[in-house]
Amino acid sequence: MDYMNGPGRHHLFVPGPVNIPEPVIRAMNRNNEDYRAPAIPALTKSLLEDVKKIFKTTTGTPFMIPTTGTGAWESALTNTLSPGDRTISFLIGQFSLLWIDQQKRLGFDVDVIESEWGYGANLEAMASKLAADTAHKIKAICIVHNETATGVTNNLATVRKILDHYNHPALFLVDGVSSICALDFRMDEWGVDVALTGSQKALSLPTGMGIVCASPKALEASKTAKSVRVFFDWNDYLKFYKAGSYWPYTPSIQLLYGLKAALELIFEEGLDNVIARHSRMGKATRLAVEAWGLKNCTQKEEWFSDTVTAVVVPPHINSNQIVKRAWERYNMSLGLGLNKVAGKVFRIGHLGHLNELQLLGCLAGVEMILKDVGYPVKLGSGVAAAAAYLQNSTPMIPSRI
Amino acid sequence: MDYMNGPGRHHLFVPGPVNIPEPVIRAMNRNNEDYRAPAIPALTKSLLEDVKKIFKTTTGTPFMIPTTGTGAWESALTNTLSPGDRTISFLIGQFSLLWIDQQKRLGFDVDVIESEWGYGANLEAMASKLAADTAHKIKAICIVHNETATGVTNNLATVRKILDHYNHPALFLVDGVSSICALDFRMDEWGVDVALTGSQKALSLPTGMGIVCASPKALEASKTAKSVRVFFDWNDYLKFYKAGSYWPYTPSIQLLYGLKAALELIFEEGLDNVIARHSRMGKATRLAVEAWGLKNCTQKEEWFSDTVTAVVVPPHINSNQIVKRAWERYNMSLGLGLNKVAGKVFRIGHLGHLNELQLLGCLAGVEMILKDVGYPVKLGSGVAAAAAYLQNSTPMIPSRI
Amino acid sequence: MDYMNGPGRHHLFVPGPVNIPEPVIRAMNRNNEDYRAPAIPALTKSLLEDVKKIFKTTTGTPFMIPTTGTGAWESALTNTLSPGDRTISFLIGQFSLLWIDQQKRLGFDVDVIESEWGYGANLEAMASKLAADTAHKIKAICIVHNETATGVTNNLATVRKILDHYNHPALFLVDGVSSICALDFRMDEWGVDVALTGSQKALSLPTGMGIVCASPKALEASKTAKSVRVFFDWNDYLKFYKAGSYWPYTPSIQLLYGLKAALELIFEEGLDNVIARHSRMGKATRLAVEAWGLKNCTQKEEWFSDTVTAVVVPPHINSNQIVKRAWERYNMSLGLGLNKVAGKVFRIGHLGHLNELQLLGCLAGVEMILKDVGYPVKLGSGVAAAAAYLQNSTPMIPSRI
Amino acid sequence: MDYMNGPGRHHLFVPGPVNIPEPVIRAMNRNNEDYRAPAIPALTKSLLEDVKKIFKTTTGTPFMIPTTGTGAWESALTNTLSPGDRTISFLIGQFSLLWIDQQKRLGFDVDVIESEWGYGANLEAMASKLAADTAHKIKAICIVHNETATGVTNNLATVRKILDHYNHPALFLVDGVSSICALDFRMDEWGVDVALTGSQKALSLPTGMGIVCASPKALEASKTAKSVRVFFDWNDYLKFYKAGSYWPYTPSIQLLYGLKAALELIFEEGLDNVIARHSRMGKATRLAVEAWGLKNCTQKEEWFSDTVTAVVVPPHINSNQIVKRAWERYNMSLGLGLNKVAGKVFRIGHLGHLNELQLLGCLAGVEMILKDVGYPVKLGSGVAAAAAYLQNSTPMIPSRI
Q: In the β-sheet with B345-349, what is the strand arrangement from edge to edge?
């Protein structure tokens, strides 16, 4: 029997991969094509232009690499840094942990600034380190914009301000995997040097494309960076960009057409409207959590994430049980707690192609599950709190006015 | 701009066409085929066997006609009756009205038994007429199992009991368009002579296949029925059934493969479980309506429909406004009130490929819409009432235990 | 095992259903929608305008009926004629035979003009009958534009000339199932009163939509036509056209979007270019047949069909064997000989979404099959003859210049 | 205008990406799923078992990495070798050149054995080097099984024999990108230590999955290999294999379901039958080339490739013109000549989901194109030569007997 068979639609509320819009599924429903024939270079050229918009950059150079977020990280690091280079990195959850692990394995001298899980990056500590680093040994600040494990969003504008304050030349590398196209992100304005995301997150595509965008300064750094790299080497791309054939190796034809459709939907809705929608989803979810009498894993409002909410369960409940029940009884996927917060939190992903009624269905489901596992929730309470907010804030659908 | 573009999935809650399961969409995603090559007859043969199960018949003969429910009606009538034949028909809503209109236009002598909209078929009146009809002038009882306009389900077992009581030979013709595969329906046990449904209803396929199932008595009647018919003539099908090529004209290849996938899902879930699921959906919806302080258009519990609920709005509200708002603001389609109840009711279709969280998302949406249009609903109230019931009654998903 | 599984693509060369273009398959890959919400009426409105172009009419009124070609026939006849009305109909092959059979069963007084299979409609005989019919008893000329069974195309311009010559008011009804969108057809110029086609033919869609186009004179006739009809009644459509909701019953959402995509492709290529392409396909096929030393079932060049070629096999060969072998060994579907020419001809359908190399692959396959069944063909001979012509006549692809 | 719009199907005859079977396109037509929910690990587990069969290994460990062939190369090298390690590598065409380039950039000491393009790997030279290497400085033999640029297939069995003859412990690393699942390949029997392929080649999937299979000896080597790697590190996979969750980062849900469907088709046809089919395709293509009076780029029969044929054009013709014309006029994609043979050869890819009539259509097209560009080919000659062979050798389709 096929696990995915069941009555009705599956409710996908993990923080990635996320729901794919029907027009994107349609656009990808196609045979392969010769990527050296004129169609694919022409498509690629226009995508490289359009994709810059989701990074809010005009000066950046994007690379659409057939890989995942982990590969995108590796691309960002190996193209800009040399083994032994010092980086500052913030350990605040599972994904920042994994990135730090990668940085170490790639041979960098990682200066880890750790926070309790649920807290944001300690930018004061970073400021101190930068202040002390008059010799400019620190080559890069590596920061996860949105830590998917704890639902914590870091303040990137402040990172830039601190760098500027100390006039520090370190590169500013941002993991935007669960933020770009969902949270406010401004590559040029914030002077981000490398930003990256994965296709399966807010872009609402299948997994398989890591999009990395490099500032002129990052491109310059790539000329001298000594990290060994071939598959992830930007220079191979740049050679093919110049030649107009764009691809050093075979891209996924389907993902290119899918990206085209995804961007069309995003631009039709308006990127700022997309971000506002994520803000509504995040707020509504948090109101529900509060109404249930549960705690957000995120410890301060300034770090609340609009793409994922990690909900802390009472000590006598195992959060895995909640995720299991969602799957087995209500045809819903919720995110598990990872590593330090395993069993202690479950996560509601609310990013990508999603709307109000989908979220309210999810929240209604979580209420039933909470009751299933013995937590004395008042059914309807979270939905009511979320709906009271959404009923006031949901705009008309642009295509239907 | 494409109307259907908008954030997140569209919420389809009209009583047909309904949501198509992803495996069915997949199964239909194909090129055409030669319907005279061996693949299609083999597929058709197995479908004709399997489709009998959803009618709960072993003796019936099904016809899968490339048409809609209206065409299926015409097929049922013209193959069994002759112009001038007397039929009894129940006028209880828009769809029974349309069927009666068709019967008249086809030249039958229709004895209409009318009820207020919201009431079920007046079976006492039928009993009287049958009792009086000692000459057996009445050739057929035509009854809509589930009146989609008002959400009224008629009691077919009682119709059979009355026919038997008077030992009346009239044919028993049933419109099961919004009931079969969703409500309890037993062709053989209830001695139904012709039953019919449309692919876009509880089977959860696209529109385009009217499925008509004929009892041996109906097939016998077709030999002498004098109504003019060609496209809808069962005899053309029967000739091709006998020859093993099955199709007097070209079927939709895609719908055949889609039907196969749809039936596999239904049988995997279990037809009785599917019916039980619809019962949960109906009950949950009615509990929400009650919690909102609104009235069900259906006047007695015995007629409550588990596939569609027509909700009466207060006099100062135009129900069309609710449907409009659902579409424009919440990406949801609700059913309009039709004819006599236009502007007075809106309808929630809860049939086909659907589950608990989808319905709760819909109910949460209806609450916000009610508030939008000025009805003083307590947000969360309907969801809470429905969830309290569903949290107790929702079974585990068979494929995941 | 699934019959359609096999190495490589299936080669579909029956005269319908035909290959669906990938963009059309994509367009149809979607969930159902509420056909009463604004999207479907807006789409329908634009389709009704666009579909007129394939009939080359500005004054006609199209009906897109959820049915097959057989149903479209019935719609054409019952809306314009009354039982007992005299029609002239030409028996020249299986499909004209079936239409005549339908006319008889619907109660018309059919004056059949028969030709040998392989010959076109005997228009001289028609002229005589019209000349004699000073009382105007003949109410309609019913003619199949392209007889799919024998590959015979009738000359509709001449029919009109004869009607005009005798100043005869008979309606001019045309079955364009295997011609419209592939052969030169001019509804307005030729004064056709009803023309019809099916979605699965040159439009290259799945089966399920019968498109019937009525001239003002035909619409006028429909007001007094006494044939019984409900499902096929144009008046129901006209009422809904007027109301702006367009559909008296549920259309196939998927076919509507598919038709939009199909028409876009046709208009992008240019309807006249599409017709020219069919002409090339027909010519190339006939050159191959000639090179093989086989006869075309069509007896005179003036009737040669550009959508289907019926190839006569030598007496000692059973053409069914050729079709069987194509299916079992070469993953190709060819058309069987039907009725009078069963076993004597096989048919190559070359209509719809098709290009030169597909056809040449088919012809190469037919050569191998002919050899398989013992016909002493010179391999490559037909391909060479066809290619010599195509290499001179194939234009550049518009989207790639 | 969309480049891919044009009459009829596109004819894809590049040596990758190749045509995707319709059942595989269907299987991939789906929404995302949570890869941590039970469905994906269960699917992955069964795929890891099944995928071993296409490598003909029972002892190997496969890794299905979200990357391309280039990434798969990098995975093979970095997991088994350390910087400075000596490799023997054969330069015989563009893809072996690129792999050698990668080996150098990754820091290995590459001993390049060069042949003229069109010749196979010089195994005698390898034998000499191995004989001289009594100190076992050579850590790996890196060989491209099938050089896609020139259509040259190397003899892997001989490589193994030579290694065994000298009792040399070097690892045996094979690029099987354009061979595995198409040519005879036997990982266990030939003692291959790492073999790899890409999803878009003979597996007939979209690009995006590099499949790397490691022998126990290769896995052992990975424990001490010092090449820097994170994204491509097998150890991360092995940890997740052990844990039963299988994925160190997010896989493409669609490619997993696609791979399942692709393998089902391959096993249904029978892997050896698939290989035999490729042999037929290769032979037929070469017979056509010979009939046209053109030369195969491959210089000796022992190296003839059954997945791609590089055809040498006469000096006065630019092969790019042939590829351009195929695209612009005949809706076909052929492979360009690369690097040293740019302008001198064009390539016909005949791998993956393909059958006889598709190939014959392609060959007929090439004939017309040759004529278009001024080469005096006899139309039909190549098709005749190929068909004469295919008509004798094509088996019945298993699913249709």
A: B295-296, B308-312, B345-349
Asked if D30 lies within 8 A of B26 by C-beta distance, the reply is yes
Distances (CA, A) of C134 to B36, B100, C81, C139: 45, 43, 19, 12
Q: Give me the pLDDT at residue D6, please.
A: 87
For D121-157, write each residue's pLDDT tens digit.
Answer: 999 999 999 999 999 999 999 999 999 999 999 999 9
Query: At residue A255, does pLDDT exceed 80?
Result: yes
Residue A1: the pLDDT is 64
The count of residues in chain A is 401
Beta bridge partners of A373: none
Query: Can you tell me the distance from the alpha carbon of A46 to that of A27, in angstroms, rounded to the nearest whole number?
Result: 16
Judge: D252–A198 Cβ closer than 8 Å, yes or no: no
Question: From D26, which residue of chain B is nearest by alpha-carbon distance?
Answer: B26
Query: Which residues of chain B neighbour D22 with C-beta distances below 8 Å?
Result: 30-31
The DSSP output letter for C54 is: H
Q: Which chains border D (3 or more CB–CB pairs < 8 Å)?
A: A, B, C
pLDDT of C390 above 70: yes
| Cβ <8 Å between B388 and A367 | no
CA distance B4 to C143: 42
Q: What is the pLDDT of residues A293-334, one digit of tens each?
A: 999 999 999 999 999 999 999 999 999 999 999 999 999 999
CA B304 to chain centre: 14
Prediction ipTM score: 0.98
Q: Cβ atoms within 10 A of the Cβ of B131, count?
A: 12
pLDDT at A28 over 80: yes
pLDDT at residue C254, as a whole number: 98
Contact flag A3-D336 (C-beta cutoff 8 Å): no
Q: How far is CA C323 from CA C161, C332, C348, C369, in A?
A: 40, 8, 10, 9
CB contact under 8 A, D30 and B22: yes
Of C383, C388, C400, the CB nearest to D383: C383
For the stretch D229-267, pLDDT in tens is 999 999 999 999 999 999 999 999 999 999 999 999 999
Distance from CA of A328 to the nearest CA of B (A): 6
**Cβ separation B37–C106 shorter than 8 A:** no
Among residues D83, D71, D197, the alpha carbon closest in space to that of D139 is found at D83
What local confidence, expressed as pLDDT, does residue D348 receive? 98
Total residue length of chain D: 401
CB pair distance less than 8 Å for D30 and B38: no
Cβ contact C29–A29 (<8 Å): yes
Residue ranges of chain D with per-residue pLDDT less than 50? none
Q: Which residue has the tokens 């296949």?
A: B209
| Least CB–CB distance from B208: residue in C17, C66, C248 | C66
Answer whether residue B330 shows pLDDT above 70: yes
B31 contacts D27? CB cut-off 8 A = no
Q: Which of C25, C83, C255 sits opposite B31 (nearest CB)?
A: C25
Give the Cα separation of C380 and C361 in Å (integer).
Answer: 11
Q: CA–CA separation, D126 vs D114, rounded Å?
A: 11
Percent of chain A's residues with pLDDT above 90 = 99
Q: How do residues B259-310 score in pLDDT, each as one tens digit?
A: 999 999 999 999 999 999 999 999 999 999 999 999 999 999 999 999 999 9
Using an 8 Å CB-CB cutoff, list chain A residues near D333: 33-34, 37
Which residues sit opposite C214 in a β-bridge? C61, C194
Helix/strand/coil for A175: strand
In the beta sheet, which residues pair with residue D91? D114
Q: Which residues of D touch B (CB under 8 A)?
A: 22, 25-27, 29-31, 38, 400
- In this complex, the residue of D29, D269, D355 whose CB is nearest that of residue C29 is D29
- Residue D73 contacts residue D197 (beta carbons within 8 Å): no
Residue pair A27/D27 in contact by the 8 Å Cβ criterion: no
